[in-house]
Design goal:
single chain, 12% strand
Length: 212
Amino acid sequence: MTETPSVLEVIRTTRSLRRFRPDPIPDEVLRELLEAATCAPSGGNSQSWRFVVIRDHEQRRRVGALYKEGWDEYSPPSRLAGITDPRERRRVESAYHLGAHMGDEAPVLVLFCAPRPPAAGAGSFAARTAGASVYPAVQNLLLAARARGIGGCLTTIHLYREEQVKAALGIPADVDTYALVPLGYPRDGFGPLRRKPVEEVTFLDRWGAGPL
């Protein structure tokens, strides 16, 4: 039996994975991941998140086709021509692969939603904080998935076709979507991650002061 990695190991090795094997995710494992998502904090303990789990092949195909339209609008293929750094090119090629195969490769898609906050106009307090009660649930799901040997990534490109995605899934008009997460057993390996050192991103006591 494979030993479950420690929490810190999970955090340090949960990278975005976008290529998946066709193996299905067992129901009991998927439920465990969703339960982990519901353990996330939320403002006022509202727990307002809602998860649309998409496993049906035709539904995945519909959502994947809309994601592909959004991806082509966001990042046309010509973008690849200007990338010469091999590491960056591999990353971008992986994103293009997901854009082309979102609907037919990952066995599960999870769409994170929440009712629209009142007075959520552009720049309003509600608009600035709306995702704060959703994205922790996304991260919990991804960390739990990593602990079970399942890969995924947070994507938002579906927002380019949000109304069509909502129509395809029967999501009410007053519910907003925040992230579309593909899940599956990955073709590529987990971590380690490449991140900037703490000294480059941390100030002590005031902005611009020396690092911790």
